[in-house]
Amino acid sequence: MEYRKFGNSGLMVPALSFGTGTFSGEGIFKKWGNTNIEEAKYLIDICLDHGVNFFDTANSYSFGNSEKILGEAIKGRRDKVLISTKSTFPMNEEINDLGSSRFNIIKSCEYSLKRLKTDHIDIYFIHAFDPLTPMEETLRALDDLVSSGKIRYIGCSNFSGWHLMKSLSISEKSNFAKYIIHQAYYSLVNREYEWELMPLGVDQNIGIMVWSPLGWGRLGGKIRRGKEMMDGRIKQGGDFKGPNVDTEHLYNVVDVLHDIALEINKTIPQVAINWLLQRPTVCNIIIGARNPQQLLENLGSVGWKLTDEQINRLDDVSRCQPIYPYWHQYNYIRSQFPVKL
Question: Is 179 assigned a catalytic role?
Answer without folding.
Answer: no
